[in-house]
Structure formats: C-alpha cells, structure tokens
Amino acid sequence: MERHFRIPVSEEKVRSLRVGDVVYLSGVLVTGRDQVHRRALQYLREGKTLPMDLRDGALYHCGPIMIEKGGEWRVYGFGPTTSARMEPVEAEFIERTGVRFIIGKGGMFERTTEAMGRLGAAYLAHPGGVSVLATRSVKRVKDVHWLDLGIPEAMWVLEVEDFGPTIVAIDSHGSNLYIDVMRKAEERKNSILRSLSI
Amino acid sequence: MNLEESLESCVVRMMEVAAFNVSPDVTKALRKALDREESDVAKINLSAIVENIEAAKQERKPVCQDTGTPTFFLKIGEDFPVKAKIHEILRRAVRRATKEIPLRPNAVNPWTLENSGDNTGRMVPIVHVEIVEGNSLELTYLAKGGGSENTVQLFMLSPVLGVNGIKKAVLEAIYRAGPKPCPPVVVGVGVGGSSELCLKIAKRAALRPIDQPNPDEKLRNLERELLDMINSSGFGPMGLGGRTYALAVHVDWAHKHPASLPVGISTICWALRKSVAKVHSDGSFEILAPEVV
Ligand code: SF4
C-alpha cells in the first residue's frame, strides 16, 4: 500500500505499517550517520540534550553533498548511505531519542528489528544511489548542527515534500524484509548448487 | 591548444559526462529488467532508479551522491608524444573536475583520515597503463562507488575444483554481497593470472558494454549460466526481493600457475558511470562513449 506521512508521526501510524508498504514522507527530515550516532549517544548518556529533538521524527542515514552559495546551503546529492554500520548502536539510539523512522539503504538486523518492535519504529529503505529524486524532494535546508564533524557527517535539518519512494523493510511487528529475502535465498542456494552438479 | 591542455580538457569532460550519465547500455538493461519484474517492491526500486537516471541527466546533477573514486584504464600509443607526464595531467584534470562539476572529495589518507579535498592523493587517481601500437591515447574512465567496491572479492581456489569451483565462488561472492552493492549490479569475473591480475581483469570485464557479447562462445554460455544462477537467488533489486540482482556477468581470463586458480569477482552498482575517449597527437579528441544528447 502507498502511504504518505507527515513528520512528526505518531506511534499508532507507524504501527499500522507492514513490510512491503511504500511510504513518502513530508515535513522535517534529519540526517545522521556514523558520527552523529556517536556524538548523540555520548550526549544522551551524559544526560545532555541534543540540538534537535528527534521524538516522533525521522532520521536519514545520509551524507549529503551540500553547496554553500551566498550564505545559503543547497542540497546537491541526497542518496542514502549503508545502514549496517549503525547496527551496533541503533537500538539504543531509537530508545534514547524516541525517533520513529530510520531511513537508509542495505538494511539493518536483529537488534534493530527487536527495538523497532518494542518501541514502535520502522526502517524505510530508500533505493540506493537514487540521489537526484531525493534531492528534488528537499524544499529547504532549515538548519545544520555539528558542522565541525564535516559536511557529510553533520546533522542536517531539512524540510522535504514527498520524499521517496521508500519501502518499509522493517516494521514494528518483528518483520524484516531483508532477513526474509536472505532466508529464501539461502533455501534456494542448495538447489542452485545442485543444478550446477557441485 | 597544446596537447597537454587538450588532454586535460578531455579528461575533465569525460568525468563530467560520466558524473551525470549512467552508461546507456546499463540504462537499457535496467529498463528491460523493469519489464521482467513482477513484485511491486522490485518494480518500485527499478522505476525509481530509471527515473533518477533521467533526472540526473536533465538537471545535470550527480547520479549518486557517491561520485566515486576516479579510475583510469589507459592505452598509450608508443608514438603518442606525452607519456610519463600523463599522470600529472590526470591529477590536474581530476582536481579541476572535482571543483568544477563538482564531485564529492573521496580521497582519504588511511592513517590520519584526512580528506585531500580534491580526489587526488597518494596513487590516486588510480591509473592502469597499457602500451599499445600507434600514436593516439585511449582512455576509459570509471567513477567507482565505494558501496560496490566493498563487495569485490578474491578467491584463491584449489585448481582441482575446476569450473564448478569458479561457479561456486561467484555464487558465494553474491551471497556475501547481498544488498550491499546497490543491486542491480554488473558482475565482472576474472579467472586465472595472479591475485592482483584476476581482480584487475574482472573490473575491466565489467566495463565491457552489456550489449557487446563475449566473442568466445564457451564464455558466452558461462556468462549466461552465471547470470541465471545469480538471479535465481531472488535477492533482486536492492536485495529486497525480485528477479534482477545482476544485469550482466562478464568473464575474462589469463593463464595461471599450475598450483593456483585465482578468481576475482568485481561488482559495479547500477550507477555505472564510465566514459571512453581518444586523444590524437595533434591535440584533437573524441568522447567515444557514452553518447550524450
Ligand atoms: S554503491 Fe553505487 S549506487 Fe550505491 S551509493 Fe555507492 S555509488 Fe551510489
């Protein structure tokens, strides 16, 4: 089913999603990859607040290409980065921030799936490399935090309109499309090998 | 214009054309794949990819935000007047292209993690050189994305495993890669040679145009068999399920040591950005591929 959501989004809405649903997002999108996760968790563990409240929000695994022109930032590249690198810390990140959507590419695994079920969050897969369509959806660069981490690693706050298509690859009911596909592929592997008479 | 200047402009132009355009043979294969897919998820992924390719061309924006590592395959004519200096000219061109297009700076010192900021560095751009007859220079440029470079694999097989061992290695490589290289991918397989040579010819084989069949019939059949095998895994576009994980499998080979069977498997994502050009000794040059209108 194709769904269009506006951020912030309620737990109830997120829980109504199932793997395979197609989601387009409008509202405020925040980027965060490796260094944002590291610093954010360090802050939250020490009881400090983040420069941007992520409760009911959406975090995009993305290191954008940004260009500054006349004191204004413009997005030039906005495709997703590999989410697997964030797997070791994402469960804690979701728990501490209350974020509802994690967006990226390549999927996440058991710990994140478990946390998403428990906390009411979902993982949206943006087609890898599809940078120009993502760029088109950006209406405005609202803010940037932690620019000292470098342009790709900083926390960019953007207003988007119909960002997508994204596919619900992990829902809040314990389903993970990547793991399903992998499991089926594993089942097929032996018959492929047999057909090669190996 | 002198020859060195034309060579520099040629390379800048090649990099620009590649940044905004996925190779047309790949785009055609993606469209065909879209017709073949049945599941909604696979279709959505593929149509977003195809739409993105069109949008990049129209808006002159990089196809993917990872604009890749600049990689060159050169065929230098023995009578082409510029030789040792080519490296310096390539470096200059890469710096200029990075600034003018612009490209994302992707050259990082592995020890200090310092980004050079201009896509050049120690041994970068990556340049493979071949000396050939004649007085012109042929360049193939590849903007190689990091995601699909991370899934390139080397197998040093026991020669007793033979062809079946090679097939199994390819399957193993694909299962390990899964969604990581942004499938659909083009897979290059290099058989024989040595550890480094099989990987080099694998990458070069992946650059062969998809609509250009392997001249060797046996290899043509093997390529088809490997392609069916990979796609029957069901990983599909982006590893989210479907029929198209690979658009093509290209095999190249070299003689090998009796005691080894090196197999290199090189994956290149759908955002396959390459260009080919020829520079003549009088300073004129042609961009041979891709054809851009
Ligand atoms: S693997 Fe290719 S399509 Fe995917 S992010 Fe890297 S360069 Fe872009």
Overall description:
The complex is a heterodimer of chains A (198) and B (293). Chain A contains six helices and nine strands, in the order βαβαβββαβαβαββα. Chain A is of the alpha/beta class and 198 residues long. In chain A, strand 4 and strand 5 form a beta hairpin. Chain A is globular. Chain B has 293 residues and is α+β, with helices and mostly antiparallel strands. Chain B folds into two domains: 119 residues, 60s Ribosomal Protein L30, Chain: A (2-Layer Sandwich); 122 residues, no CATH class. Chain B contains eight helices and nine strands. In chain B, the strands form two sheets. Chain B has a five-stranded mixed beta sheet. A four-stranded mixed beta sheet of chain B has the order 4-7-5-6. In chain B, strand 1, helix 4 and strand 2 form a beta-alpha-beta unit. In chain B, helix 1 crosses helix 4 and helix 2 packs antiparallel against helix 3. Chains A and B meet through helix 5, strand 9 and helix 6 of A and helix 3 and helix 6 of B. Bound molecules: iron/sulfur cluster. Iron/sulfur cluster sits at the interface of chains B and A.
Oligomerization status of the protein chains:
heterodimer
Determine the structural class of chain A based on helices, strands and strand pairing. Answer: alpha/beta
Order of helices and strands of chain B: HHHEHEEHEHEHHEEEE
Number of separate helices of chain A: 6
Weakly predicted, low-confidence segments of chain B: none
Strand order of the largest sheet of chain B: 2-1-3-8-9
Q: Domain count of chain B, please report it.
A: 2
Q: Could you write a compact summary of the structure shown?
A:
The complex is a heterodimer of chains A (198) and B (293). Chain A has 198 residues and is an alpha/beta fold. Helices cover 32% and strands 31% of the residues of chain A.
Provide the fold topology.
The complex is a heterodimer of chains A (198) and B (293).
Chain A: E1 2-6, H1 11-15, E2 22-31, H2 34-45, E3 58-60, E4 65-69, E5 72-77, H3 87-97, E6 101-104, H4 110-119, E7 122-125, H5 131-136, E8 138-145, E9 155-170, H6 177-195
Parallel strand pairs in A: 1-2, 2-3, 3-6, 6-7
Antiparallel strand pairs in A: 2-9, 4-5, 7-9, 8-9
Helix pairs in contact in A: 2-3, 3-4
Chain B: H1 3-20, H2 24-36, H3 40-59, E1 69-77, H4 86-100, E2 126-132, E3 137-144, H5 146-149, E4 153-157, H6 162-177, E5 185-193, H7 195-206, H8 217-231, E6 246-256, E7 261-269, E8 273-279, E9 285-289
Parallel strand pairs in B: 1-2, 5-6
Antiparallel strand pairs in B: 1-3, 3-8, 4-7, 5-7, 8-9
Bound molecules: iron/sulfur cluster (SF4).
Iron/sulfur cluster (SF4) sits between chains B (64, 66, 145-148, 181-182, 269, 271) and A (79, 128-129).
